[in-house]
Amino acid sequence: EVQLVESGGGVVRPGGSLRLSCVASGFTFEDYGMSWVRQGPGKGLEWVSGIQWNAGNRGYADSVRGRFTISRDNAKSSLYLEMKSLRVEDTALYYCARATSGYYDSSEMDVWGQGTTVSVSS
Amino acid sequence: QSALTQPASVSGSPGQSITIFCTGISSDVGDYNYVSWYQQHPGKAPKLIIYDVDDRPSGVSSRFSGSKSADTASLTISGLQAEDEADYYCSSYRVNNYVFGTGTKVTV
Predict the structure, then answer these.
(1) pLDDT tens digit string along A14-46?
(2) How far is CA B23 from CA A7, B3, B29, B52, B99, in A?
(3) Are the C-beta atoms of A86 and A17 separated by less than 8 Å?
(4) B47/A45 touch (CB, cutoff 8 Å), yes or no
(5) Nearest residue in chain A measured CA to CA from B6
C-alpha cells in the first residue's frame, strides 16, 4: 500500500524550532518529487515547500523562505522539514504529499499523508 | 505569492451541475497547463480529482471535468450528489513554486 506518514509536530513557543518527518512506503521514493502543504485552523491549503527527486531543486513559499528548510533521504524513504523562528501564523496541520513525477512544481500531488499538527503559541 | 482566486461557496441541488472558477495570472494558470483540482472532505486529506487542466486520475468519477480559458480554470461537477459536498481547491504551477486557490465550499 502506498503510504505517507508524518510525525514531529507539537506545541512550540514563538521563535522556537521543530523538525517534521515523513516516511514513505509502498513506492520507490527516490523517483518522486515531494512537497509539504499546510492548512491552518479553518483555513485553506497553502503550499509550503517542495523538493525534486534528487534534491537538485527546492522551492519555498515566500511566507517560510529563510526560516524553513526541506530535505530528503532517499535511502531512508524520508522527507523532512526543518522549521526555525516559528511564528503564531505557522500554526497548522502539515501534510506531506507526493508529486506524480520527479518534479514537485510541475506535477500534481496524488498521495497525501494524514498530517502532523504544529501549534505555535506563547 | 498570492493565491489563485475561487468563490468562497457554491451550492446546487442533487442532479444539477455546478461550475467552480479559479482565476490566476499569466505566470501561472495562463501560461501553463499544469492546473489541478483537489477535493477535501472535513477532517480528511485532500484528494486529487483533476490534473493537467482536464485529466482525471483513475477511479475519479467522470462527473468531474476541468477546463481552462486564458487565466481562468474551471471545475464542473455534473449530476451533483450528496457525497460531492466538500471543499475544492484549484492549484497551478509557478516557476519553482506551486500555488493553491483560496478554496470553494460546495453545498449540496
Answers:
(1) 999 999 999 999 999 999 999 999 999 999 999
(2) 34, 9, 8, 16, 12
(3) yes
(4) no
(5) A44
